[in-house]
Amino acid sequence: MRPRPLKRRWIWGIGSLVALAALIVLLPRFVLASDGARAELVQRIETLTGEPAAISGPVEFDLFPRARLVADRIAIGTAAETRIERIIADFDPIDALFGEARISRIVLVRPERDGASVPPADPAGTGAVAGPERRARDSAAFVADLAELARGAIDRLDDLQILVIRNGIWRSSEETFGPNGISNANLTITRASNLSAFQMVGDFVWNGVPATMEMNLASTQRLKAGQESAVDFDLSSPTLDLNFEGQVAFDPAPTLLGRFEARGDSFARTAAWLSDTRTEIPDLGAVSLTGSLVLEGRMLAVNDAELRVAGSAGRGALEYDLDRDHVDGTLAFSTLDLTPIAEAIVPLPSGPFGMMRPINVDFASTADLALRLSADEARFGSLAFANMAAVLTVGGGSVGLELGDASFYGGRAYGRLSLSGGADPVLSGELNGSGVDLGAVSNAFGTPVLVLSGNGRVGANISAPAEDWRTIARSAETQLTLSAADGSLSGFDPSVFATAGTRSIYSGITGGSLPFEELKADLRGYGTEVTVRSLSLGNANDLLEMSGRADPVEGRIALDGRSRSLPQTASSGTRSGEFTAPKPISFKVEGVWPDLRVVTDGPAASPSDASGIAAGGSAAP
Known about the structure:
Layout: H1 3-33, H2 36-49, E1 53-55, E2 59-62, E3 68-76, E4 82-91, H3 93-97, E5 103-114, H4 139-157, E6 162-171, E7 182-191, E8 198-206, E9 209-217, H5 220-224, E10 229-236, E11 241-249, E12 255-264, H6 267-274, E13 287-296, E14 299-309, E15 312-321, E16 326-337, H7 339-345, H8 363-366, E17 369-380, E18 383-395, E19 398-408, E20 411-420, E21 426-437, H9 438-445, E22 451-465, H10 469-475, E23 477-490, E24 501-504, E25 513-526, E26 529-538, E27 542-551, E28 556-565, E29 585-592, E30 595-600, H11 611-614
């Protein structure tokens, strides 16, 4: 009968299933009991990190639906600097059935890394803590070590195809990386089946700002063989977008070469995000940098660079010395406006309370920069320059602008401006111009009523304590000098000084012109008070001189002056060589702007006493 064979087949089938179930249950226990998978996991961690590892939590192993080992509470490093809440390791299921434990995928859940904190040295053994000190750097060796680390990582990954990091945290002891470090890191590192192509994608939070990234490496095999490999890197965040496409090589020396582009909507936020958020950084607005990036040894260079900052765009080259932490470069601008840069460093007061806002240049103690600048056209406040060559420096606690040479209103100019921080901040500067067209200066800064013409020399100096704008306004020492020749003062008739009595100075505002052969002015200021040490204007016939004080804040002016005709050869009928001595005319200019009065002493001057003045100085020499 047939039922017995059918029953026999059922018995054999059930027996086979029981045997298979027993095999499934017992084999993983055998693998785990022999500590094969556990040891493999510890060994793989130590191989990947190069540091000792220990598992203090439970370890679980499953074969179905996936060969997987789960371990909790892992510590890595001699001082457990790295702690991992959980590791999930996936094994090859076929190898696991035969008692082998080869990991193909690792997931790190909440890995946390604390940067080593190195206390300041106390060479005298006094127990005192030394202040911050810039450490010596060997960036070429660091880059070489970094390349060796990458080379070792490629070798250590071996047949591991996927490494996943979930909710990772990294805190650095380096202040330049900011106080918050990296958190919420979710990264996936994948290798192609040929174990050559490499990709890392994911997102993280750095210093409180979320970012996403992707990096692709074309061939790890080429790198291991001492050849170049294509690489691209993209980073995107609310404060910075960065892209690099190029080549990387480990031998004979680590190099990186390719096209680089970085853009940020705020210079201050971008710099604070990348470095120390506790340092107040000037906000220069949107910033972008593009060019060909080259990393060799200690030098990081951006050639064919285009830098856009504070509304201006310059082209040239930049270099960053990793050892000195120093930026050097040359940039050429078609137009350059230095005003927003200056106002970002020293913001103008927005009101009375803004006058007391401290001026902070602490960023200049952490930065080290020297940029050679050139511009076809440049502006600094109301001053206009052309064909400018200058050097901008930041470092040592101070910011400086050195104007080497520039066209300045028809002449040439040079000067400097610096702001130093520290316990006693100081603002100082000077500007010197020669061959300056006074007509161009008058049109730019003067009134349409009074117009100067001629060529001359100008000089301006300022020195002031710079705690805040109130201190600058109260204590600034300033000087302005002017000397010119062969010009004229149009729109003013100096005969207003020649008639006795009191009258408004506006009675001298006419369409006349006073030619001069020489014009000199020397003004000194302290705070809001201005001293007119000397102001003289003269030609061969006449000389007008003034001195006194002015307060621009109150608008109060008090000047003493005199007008006199210069001695001339006696008229016909007198002995040769005999000269006349015209009588000087004394006057005062006083009042509160715009209500200024002219007060002339004594009786009305005779025509012979003030012939040049009465004629508006129009007599030819």
